[in-house]
Design a protein that fits this description.
By secondary structure, chain A is of the alpha+beta class. Chain A has helices spanning 2-15, 20-33, 75-88, 93-97, 110-113, 121-136, and strands at residues 47-48, 55-62, 65-72. Chain B is α/β, with parallel strands linked by helices. In chain B, the strands form four sheets. Chain B has a seven-stranded mixed beta sheet, sandwiched between helices. Classes of the chains: A alpha+beta, B alpha/beta.
Chain lengths: 141, 396
């Protein structure tokens, strides 16, 4: 239950902040800490289009695990992207597919769980699951 | 400055600062009461049965039409068509009046997608039969260039916004109309962003069509108005077929009613239209003099306070704006500002505001937009400026 544990850990970290603005200061910090994605992935092919901000996502498989690296043009989105990557990256296909995205509700971050294409984060989440599904049968997306 | 918040039950439940009235406004109690009154006292279909309930609903509905006529000073009640919004009104005119009658179309660069896409769906394309009026540096319409376009393409259809939804720029509708007519063209004005802030007189403006939405002027969602000069509406084909728009139907041939009922097929948004009447009354009771004074005070104050912030970029220096102000902060994504203001209980709009061509032209992918109306106050702007400075500090 690696994903479940990771979500629990992040959710504990986020709950340390009584003040919502402090919570977002922390998310902004995570945004600063996210390594920049190599420019060769910042193309339309890797873009998860949002209505307001964009996310670029590169997903790959290595030694039976799936890895994700991503970037965004908005700082708070970068922070959210960092959270999603730390939850999902370096997990097996089975682990991801057995952990429904509704588990993320525990984080209390509407920007992630609200279905819609506003900031690209929810679409990125969908892509992560799509990628895992595509790897289930060993077929490339 | 008078505080109108108490007229709006929304603010009894929500203490957030609401700066997104350009997207949709809150509704005064009188409008909400009227919706309930219809649904609880005379909920019946209009223009059909002979029963008292239906007759009452029809009377209220048609009174709304007359109230709307008076509100924009149209010549006759039959010139008022109820639609589901500005978007539907433009689609109706594009498909049923313009598409087979006009070879060329002229738009401004600041149009909302709802005044771009309906025309594309009806075969207008830039570089072929769609021409864009150039802008001046302050985003106002270049009238000289507009005149040249009309000279080059007389008999065009012109469709322009009265007030830009993304930048608040007020377009000179009277001059645009005068020039359009001078070159045998016909003009539609999108009043969606103007109607809550400007006293519109369609007779005086002499526009051929004027369209707007109820929900941006304290009325219910799902109601819009298409005003058209009667002789033009009479030349307009039905947009949708169905009940209550027909004169006679057989499988061989159907004849249609005259405007406006020709364009109101099927059961209409009866409650919405009746509620809309109360929104007009609300505006009339306050009066446009007071509304304009209130709005201008807010806009001018916000503008002067925003200008004090380093790294803040306004899109226009023009004083000729109303309703909304758009800006960006150097080096910060508009969405980040929006999220942090939302967390500080200030509701505003970020993004491209459904005006992508204008944004692309200006070389940005979005902006932060604050919009004001009668229930906003100077104190709210002070709180907003503090919150904005805090957000910028966190993101730098």
């Amino acid at each position: 239950m690696i994903i479940r544990e990771r979500i629990k850990e992040i959710s504990n970290n986020l709950s340390l902040f009584d003040d919502v603005m402090q919570k977002y200061e922390y998310i902004i910090e995570l945004g600063h800490e996210l390594p920049s994605l190599d420019n060769k992935y910042k193309t339309d092919a890797y873009r998860v289009k949002g209505c307001q901000s964009n996310v670029w996502l590169n997903a790959y498989e290595k030694e039976d695990k799936l890895f994700f690296e991503a970037d965004s043009d908005a700082l708070i989105v970068r922070g959210l992207v960092n959270i999603l990557i730390s939850i999902y990256s370096s997990n097996s296909v089975g682990e991801i597919l057995n952990s429904p995205s509704t588990l993320l509700e525990e984080l209390g971050l509407n920007e992630i769980i609200t279905a819609g294409r506003q900031n690209g984060v929810n679409s990125m989440l969908k892509r992560i699951y799509q990628f895992a599904h595509s790897k289930k049968g060993g077929i490339n997306v | 400055m008078k505080n109108y918040k108490n007229d709006f039950p929304f603010f009894e439940n929500v203490s957030d600062i609401y700066f997104d009235s350009a997207a949709t406004s809150q509704k005064p109690k009188a409008v909400l009461d009227k919706l309930k009154e219809y649904y609880t006292s005379y909920c019946a279909n209009t223009h059909r049965g002979s029963h008292d309930l239906g007759n009452r609903a029809t009377r209220e509905y048609e009174e709304a039409r007359e109230t709307t006529r008076e509100f924009i000073n149209a010549q006759q009640t039959e010139e008022i068509v109820f639609t589901k919004g500005t978007t539907e009104a433009i689609n109706l005119i594009a498909s049923s009046f313009v598409s087979q009658r006009f070879k060329t179309l002229i738009l401004s660069r600041l149009e909302h997608h709802s005044n771009i896409v309906p025309w594309q769906l009806n075969g207008f394309k830039e570089g072929e039969n769609l021409f864009i009026i150039p802008m001046n540096d302050d985003l106002s319409i270049n009238l000289k260039a507009y005149k040249e376009l009309l000279k080059e393409h007389p008999n065009s259809f012109v469709s322009v916004t009265h007030v830009s939804n993304a930048f608040g720029i007020i377009n000179p509708v009277r001059e645009l109309t005068y020039l359009a007519h001078k070159y045998d063209s016909t003009i539609l004005v999108d009043g969606a962003q103007a109607i809550a802030h400007i006293d519109v007189d369609v007779k005086e403006l002499n526009v051929d069509f004027y369209v707007f939405s109820a929900h941006k002027m304290f009325g219910p969602t799902g109601v819009g108005v298409l005003y058209g000069k009667y002789e033009l509406l009479n030349q307009t084909k039905p947009y949708q077929g169905g009940g209550t728009m027909i004169d006679d139907v057989s499988f061989e041939k159907t004849t249609y009613l005259n405007p406006p009922h020709r364009f109101e097929a099927g059961t209409q948004n009866i409650a919405g239209v009746i509620g809309f009447k109360e929104a007009i009354k609300y505006i009339n009771d306050i009066g446009y003099n007071e509304i304009v004074r209130h709005d201008m005070q807010l806009i001018r104050y916000a503008n002067s306070e925003l200008k004090k912030i380093d790294s803040l970029r306004l899109f226009t220096d023009s004083d000729n704006i109303c309703g909304n102000i758009s800006f960006n902060i150097d080096g910060i994504h508009h969405n980040d500002i929006g999220v942090l203001l939302d967390k500080q209980h200030i509701t505003l709009r970020t993004g491209h505001h459904c005006a992508l061509p204008a944004m692309k032209y200006l070389g940005v992918d979005g902006s932060v937009r604050v919009s004001f109306t009668i229930y906003n106050t100077i104190e709210e702007i002070d709180i907003f400026i503090k919150a904005l400075i805090r957000a910028i500090g966190m993101l730098k």
